[in-house]
Design goal:
The chain contains 23 helices and 19 strands. With 587 residues, it is an alpha+beta fold.
């Protein structure tokens, strides 16, 4: 299943189906509805084999996502048994032997409903890669994996949390546990949320917490366990699959994946670019080195504006721009592969991407990474576009979240502020889109990677030290192939400081002299998008979306908000997404 909505109070048939299907603009999925004295439940068809709803005389078991079962084989991924995976999870749970942090790996959400007693148990994965949202009042309790759908089903869609909308514009996320709806909250990760009988209040018990407790005596041991964990996760999925797909780039994560995927399988690699450029040429050479079939598709210059409707797919509070594959999932037939592998969260969990570094290092990438000691995510916010009282309330929320994370992590609280739960990381909507479009598998979201990330010091993540040690044997086929960023991934950072300095200097001179032209990177160019007539038309079309949150702004002229210097380019994209969503609500 991709999504569910559960209501303690019965809801007439068809209502929940309508709200789930509303997040899709085309090819709306089939929805199964269950009703009884215990309430109502709607579930969309799961594109992962083996995880359709499993129902017994006593229970209904719902599994979202495509978790790897670590206590048995996963042959059901290629079988015709539509409930084998859900049934296996149910049987282990009913036997009382389920260890949620060890027995399932990767993104999932599980809902088990007792039809006789009305008891429900909702289990979130290690980092809430699939978030679950809750609505509670004195007469009802509702759960869902899509915040927009829950707001509509619970009648809360008109109660907008303006502070959270400002949060999204400024940071690209909504601070946990808030949502963009006043009375909806996100439930915590790695917890079992239970509600007994006629009670309308839930109880939560954590089955895992990412405590800052370092468990490795050496970086070599951590790297070996990391490589083994990645390999075990992939091996559990691919058995019996004759062909696979993966995303490829000019980087090192996709090369690592190519080295981990079985060579006996027919492997197709995909990249999406504005046109063939340096990134594409490097990716093609990498694909050839690993014996992978290279496939490149081109997108329009304003692709990332054209996919704005993906905001409905990922939901409010999630950046739609990470739905890179939207449209290509059909043109490249990604939805026909039994598994499509990506490299999401490798940087976040293993390379210290969320550790704040000394200023200037991003401009000079060849310099060694050094942690910034005086950074705080809870610093009082300042921005001349917004009213002071809104920023003060938002600051309080961010301070509260940092305090919460600091209760189990000391040195790395600022890093895990943007990791725990994963909705605090602006890149996770990539999974939110992909898992609804095709059988997406992300090895760097597996349980072993998450636990290793939580149990190693930050200095092992900086300068990609632990990642390099784990991936080095897998990178050998491309030992002398430059990364798109101008370094050699096979070698450690201290050698690459020199290599990257040379390529960085050459590219700087080449760009300024006109020898190197055009977009040479993997992503679109927002400068081109924002200078397009289509961007201006979108501002005009969605400008009435400001009405809902007008009180949060000092400046009431929408065009001036986009033109002044108070918002950077990504904050303007977030503003556009917010206006689009609010415009839809008003029309």
């Amino acid at each position: 299943m991709s999504d569910f909505i559960y209501s303690k109070n019965p809801i007439f048939k068809g209502k929940l189906t309508k709200e789930i299907q509303a997040i899709y603009h085309e090819e709306k999925p089939a929805i199964s509805e269950f009703h009884g004295s215990w309430g109502s439940l709607a579930v969309s068809y799961n594109i992962y084999n083996g995880f359709q709803p499993y129902e017994t005389n006593e229970h209904v078991c719902i599994v979202l996502g495509g978790p790897v079962l670590c206590y048995q084989d996963n042959n059901f991924l290629t079988s015709d048994d539509e409930v084998a995976g859900a049934r296996a999870i149910y049987n282990r749970w009913i036997a009382g032997t389920m260890q949620w942090d060890e027995d399932l790996s990767g993104p999932f959400a599980v809902l088990i409903l007792n039809k006789s007693t009305s008891e429900i148990n909702c289990i979130t994965d290690l980092m809430s890669f699939i978030p679950v949202f809750i609505y509670q009042d004195t007469s009802n309790m509702m759960l869902s994996t899509h915040v927009n759908a829950l707001a509509q089903a619970s009648g809360q869609h008109n109660k907008i949390d303006i502070v959270s909308q400002v949060d999204f514009i400024l940071h690209g996320v909504v601070t946990f546990p808030f949502t963009t709806y006043t009375n909806l909250r996100q439930v915590a990760p790695a917890e079992v949320h239970s509600m007994l009988g006629d009670s309308k209040q839930s109880q939560s018990n954590a089955y895992w917490v990412p405590k800052e407790k370092f468990q490795y005596k050496s970086i070599d041991q951590a790297a070996m366990n990391l490589r083994d964990g990645l390999q075990n996760y992939i091996d559990a999925i691919v058995k019996g699959m004759p062909h696979l797909a993966q995303f490829i780039s000019g980087g090192e994560d996709s090369r690592t994946l190519s080295g981990l995927l079985p060579k006996e399988c027919n492997r197709d690699a995909f990249i999406f670019l504005d046109g063939m450029n340096r990134e594409g040429k490097v990716a093609k050479k990498a694909a050839n080195a690993y014996g992978v079939n290279f496939n490149m598709s081109t997108r329009s210059k304003i692709h990332y504006l054209e996919i704005l409707p993906c905001a409905d797919l990922v939901g409010k509070g999630s950046q739609y721009i990470h739905a890179h594959t939207f449209g290509f999932h059909k043109s490249c037939k990604l939805n026909e592969y039994p598994a499509v592998f990506g490299g999401l969260f490798s940087d976040a969990l293993l390379k210290g991407a969320r550790i704040k570094k000394l200023r200037g290092l991003s401009r000079f990438p060849f310099l060694p990474q050094i942690k910034r000691r005086n950074y705080s995510a809870a610093t009082p916010l300042k921005n001349d576009s917004f009213q002071l009282e809104v920023l003060e309330e938002l600051t309080k929320r961010r301070q509260a979240h940092l305090k919460y994370v600091s209760s189990f992590r000391n040195e790395s609280a600022e890093e895990w502020f943007e990791l725990w739960p994963s909705s605090m990381n602006m890149n996770i909507p990539n999974l939110h889109a992909n898992r609804r479009l095709f059988k997406s598998y992300e090895p760097f979201l597996s349980k072993d990677v998450v636990k290793i990330s939580a149990s190693i010091p930050q200095k092992w993540k900086l300068n990609r030290r632990v990642f390099h040690k784990a991936a080095k044997p897998l990178l050998k086929p491309t030992k002398w192939l430059l990364h798109g960023e101008g370094r050699l991934p096979y070698f450690p950072w201290y050698i690459n400081s020199f290599v990257q300095f040379v390529t960085w200097t050459y590219r700087q001179v080449g760009s300024r002299s006109g020898i190197i032209k055009g977009n040479q990177g993997p992503w679109g160019q927002w400068k081109v998008v924002m200078n397009s007539a289509e961007w201006d038309q979108a501002i005009d079309k969605y400008s009435d979306g400001l009405n809902i949150m007008n009180s949060a702004f000092k400046e009431k002229d929408v065009k001036k908000l986009f033109e002044d210097d108070n918002l950077n380019y990504i904050q303007r994209v977030n503003l556009m997404q917010t206006l689009y969503m609010n415009h839809k609500k008003e029309n």
